[in-house]
Design goal:
Blueprint (H helix, E strand, L loop, with lengths): L1 E3 L6 E11 L5 E8 L6 H6 L2 H7 L18 E3 L13 E11 L2
Antiparallel strand pairs: 1-4, 2-3, 2-5
Length: 102
């Protein structure tokens, strides 16, 4: 996905949370990733779950893209669930944090 900085100031270390929900809106799983960490199809296929989660947990993002997101700036993000829990029918995504830059 893509997150947009809708504030009037630059931000860094943008975090995004994804949840898998059942039919009653009960969360069955959740993951949080730092924006700016995108994996290729090959990386997703060949990396272990631990390595995937480590890569998505880099606060600065790939090539330091998450160090300064200007107002109205866009930054890609990726949340990976390696296994879908039984009964999951809906996914929600929201920004879970960011640091304000002066």
């Amino acid at each position: 996905g893509t997150a947009v900085n809708q504030s009037d100031f630059p931000v860094s270390r943008v975090r995004v949370k994804g949840e898998l929900l059942d039919a009653y809106a009960v969360a069955l799983g959740e993951r949080t990733s730092y924006a700016g960490n995108i994996l290729t199809e090959e990386e997703l296929t060949n990396m272990s779950e631990d390595d995937i989660l480590k890569r998505l947990s880099r606060p600065e993002g790939r090539n330091n893209i998450n160090e300064r997101v200007l107002p109205n700036g866009r930054i890609p993000f990726m949340i990976v669930f390696t296994r879908e829990p039984p009964g999951a029918i809906k996914t929600t995504v929201m920004v879970s944090g960011a640091e304000r830059l002066l």
